[in-house]
Design goal:
The protein is mainly α. The protein has one domain. It has three helices and no strands. The longest helix has 26 residues. The termini are far apart. The model has no long low-confidence stretch (mean pLDDT about 85).
Length: about 90
């Protein structure tokens, strides 16, 4: 059953790679990159289970957290052009 899940995740990974390459907008490509990271995290957890290595689950969780933070950073960079920009508002003038 887990081998079938691994095969399904590999197919999903291939489809996400196609979407990342052919996405019409930048945000479609960013979403595909986030999907690739999520599928890679799930695949890492399934491979760890298949090999009897429960420590792979810890690695998968850390990779998932880094994937979310990286996606937010990339989208903020493309929206504002600077990761250190606090924005324009009352908080920036203090």
């Amino acid at each position: 059953m887990f081998a079938a899940a691994a095969i399904a995740l590999l197919v999903t990974l291939a489809l996400a790679l196609v979407r990342a390459a052919l996405g019409p907008t930048l945000f479609d490509r960013a979403q595909a990159a986030n999907t690739i990271g999520t599928v890679a995290m799930l695949l890492l957890a399934v491979i760890g289970f298949l090999n009897g290595r429960p420590d792979f689950l810890d690695l998968a969780l850390v990779y998932g957290l880094l994937n979310v933070i990286g996606t937010i950073a990339v989208l903020k960079y493309f929206r504002y052009g600077d990761l250190g920009d606090p924005g324009t508002g009352k908080e920036a003038s203090r």
